[in-house]
Amino acid sequence: MCGIAGWVAFDQDLTARQEVLAAMTETMACRGPDAGGVWVTTHAGLGHRRLAVIDIEGDTQPMTVEQDGRPLVTLTYSGEVYNHLELRTELAAYGHRFRTHSDTEVVLHAYLRWGVDFATHLNGMFAFALWDARSEELLLVRDRMGVKPLYYHRTADGVLFGSEPKAILAHPSVDPVVDLDGLRELLTLVRTPGHAVYRGMAEVRPGHLLRIRREGLTDHQYWALEAREHTDDLATTIGTVRELLDDIVRRQLISDVPLCSLLSGGLDSSAVTALAARGLAAAGKGPVRSFSVDFVGQTENFRPDEFRPTPDSPFAHLLAEHVAAEHRDIVLDAAALADPRHREAVLRAADLPTGLGDMDTSLYLLFREIRRHSTVALSGESADELFGGYAWFHQRESVYGGTFPWLAAAAVQRLGGPGTAPRDSLLDPDLIARLDLPVYIADSYAAALAEVPQLPVADPHERRMREVGHLHLTRFVRALLDRKDRMSMANGLEVRVPFCDHRLVEYVFNTPWSMKNFDGREKSLLRAATAEVLPREITERVKSPYPSTQDPGYPLALRAELAALAADPKAPGQALADPAAVAAALEAGRDPQSARPAAELLLGLDRWLRLYPVSLRV
């Protein structure tokens, strides 16, 4: 893993601007606390911050391949290529010679062998920039599912890029402007591919390769989900999913530093942890380490609701005992979750207010504690999107609601629980009118549907469920992957996501919904594929989302902070707020829980405007 940054300028000599490149690169120090480097030639500069995971001594970057003392190609690279050992063997057979044991060097030689088609040979999560000195062009490449982030900003004579917006914002020519479209993207629970919120900035889309030459920028899509006929019967399909998972987890256990698993006690994380335990045992290693997040008193005083019917902790402990894991609970209290320093750290990690409140803060604090013990973690993220785990996959009114299913469900079930106000309920009504979010969402939904690959299927429900699956894999999971990347890498922790392996994604995406839901329950296919390694109590457990604290002290702390904002005429958040709605939320006797998601959003926007020199053009 790592953080990258860089600058290409075809009309300037960048050897005289190394201090700017160094400043951009230094913003990525949290992603790469172990080492750093800058490489500069006349028209290109590449920066790198390293988190050492594989080939601790040899994988220094930016890395260059030379011929007769002349640089051919130079790479700054973030991520992991899980098939690098196989590729190394294949490339060696073609005559390539290696001086390190790193996957970075394999990527360089893959480019020298296959040119711009090299990305199709890579299995992994990655985002990197490659400068070809022979043709004077830069390639920006992002993995198929968008696990690793990569942003860019076009300039008059080239491009700036970085793993996170903060690297680009460190350049003196870039003004952090957010217009109405940027704010719309920020306030909706939809991730538009390529959108970066800040004006003039964009993301490299997952599965895409950008070529930046003096003549301009071209965007090439090297991978996309395709519609393929599924001919396997149910038993074969279950067996194939299991075989793929066994291979994926085995590959992702490779590490030269301590590795662990994130364990909630749900089906997804339990399956990954159990398969990791088996893989480590087969390699003569282990036991697997596992970590869970919990809140003070929550297990003992848990209150079930329609979102979370059961607490995580008992199930995490059951699975840990089942696989003989070395397990640890990270227990947080309301004071830690509400601490402004921690919430500021979350915002700086994301460069934007996410509006997910304590769920982001707890994830950040969980990763901070895990990093004291491990450098790499395996996660069950993306299984719900792939196998149909969320409740709204199984609610007809959400599936056929005429919009993104999670938004149709959220219109009835508030994110903060029953009785809570909408996230935007504390914002200025005039601003809400100018944003016209329903139109923005409708346009985004129409664009997303137009991308869905279809087969001539007779069953209209199968056709719709293919759309629902595609929406989740291209518009929903991307936000969750970005959240996990930012919170983990802010602590120098690499999180791997086995369920994002493109082979598994391609296979399950094209599996009919009737197989994914063959027993009438969520994630039927995954449950059947992993039942043999899990306790029955876990395979039968109903889906419970990432936990949120039930401590009444947390919404009380938000209420106090909201009151301080309302009393401060210089608070930048006041310009976005509806004073009447804020006053109503602060009325004596009003349940602070009812305004919790809205308070988290408004307070996040206020903190963002305090910490970042953002110009809102709304």
Largest sheet: 6 strands, antiparallel
Oligomer: single chain
Q: At the fourth CATH level, what is the homologous superfamily of the largest domain? A: HUPs
Q: How many E strands?
A: 19
Beginning-to-end CA distance, first to last residue: 37 Å
As for the CATH topology of the largest domain, it is: Rossmann fold
| Bulk shape | globular
CATH architecture level-2 label of the largest domain: 3-Layer(aba) Sandwich
Count of discrete domains = 2
How many helical elements? 24
What value does the Rg take, in angstroms? 24 Å
Strand content: 15-25%
Could you report the average pLDDT, rounded to the nearest whole number?
Answer: 94
* Amount of helix: 25-40%
Strand order of the largest sheet: 2-3-1-9-8-11
Structural class: alpha/beta
Poorly predicted ranges: none
By CATH reckoning, the class of the largest domain would read: Alpha Beta
Descriptive overview:
The model has no long low-confidence stretch (mean pLDDT 94). This protein folds into two domains: 2-221, Aminohydrolase, N-terminal nucleophile (Ntn) domain (Glutamine Phosphoribosylpyrophosphate, subunit 1, domain 1, 4-Layer Sandwich), CATH 3.60.20; 234-403 and 476-539, Rossmann fold. The protein has a six-stranded antiparallel β-sheet with strand order 2-3-1-9-8-11. With 618 residues, the chain is α/β, with parallel strands linked by helices. The chain has 24 helices and 19 strands. 40% of the residues lie in helices and 17% in strands.
